[in-house]
TrEMBL record:
This is Dienelactone hydrolase. InterPro entries: AB_hydrolase_fold (IPR029058), Dienelactn_hydro (IPR002925), Dienelactone_hydrolase-like (IPR051049). Pfam families: DLH (PF01738). It comes from Pseudomonas syringae pv. actinidiae ICMP 18807. Keywords: Hydrolase.
Amino acid sequence: MNGRYVSVNAHDGRQFQAYLATAIGGSGPGVVLCQEIFGINQAMRDVADFLAEEGYSVLVPDLYWRQKPGVELGYSEEDFQQAFGFYQAFDENAGVDDIRASLNALRQLPECTGSAQGVVGYCLGGKLAYLAACRLPEVACAVGYYGVGIEKALGELEGLQGRRLVLHAAELDQFCPAEARAEIFAAALKTPGVETYLYPGVDHAFARPNGHHFNKPAALMAHERTVA
């Protein structure tokens, strides 16, 4: 796939960059893809391209642009420490605003068809996808992969109002341990429209292509549930 970068107008009048992967047929339903803590790196572009092959037009916003535009980190210990620093300083509310701006930008592109839009996110982006589903009425559905910290924001579910939300969790994920998962799954059972899936024997980032914890069977199963 040949993706490209486009400019997105933020709510405060400034602009930030986003990676656009166009649906294989030239146009398709719009999806905003929210990054892990490592920025828009090759893994995130690969995920966007993969979704584009499924027929979606995918926009990946640079969610760190307020701190440092163009962050693209790998998975060395040094890069992880940098990524964790960006994560700790990240403003989630501003991130949701940027998702809204990205949805608006995507709607205006000829590569995007239809009014229904989705949000998919991984790690940091998994929680942001959750928050976007709960806060933004323009989000028709959202999918969060091993989102971190969702158990601290369960009150947000009141805003979901029946929209589809899918949450994928890894059994061995130290960033979302069993106690946190139990809280999330219990709240999900009481909320219409929420689907939760636990993948046994896999760790955080099990769906990252070529990652250390990549588990192909679990990743494929999660993908099938994501695009269902």
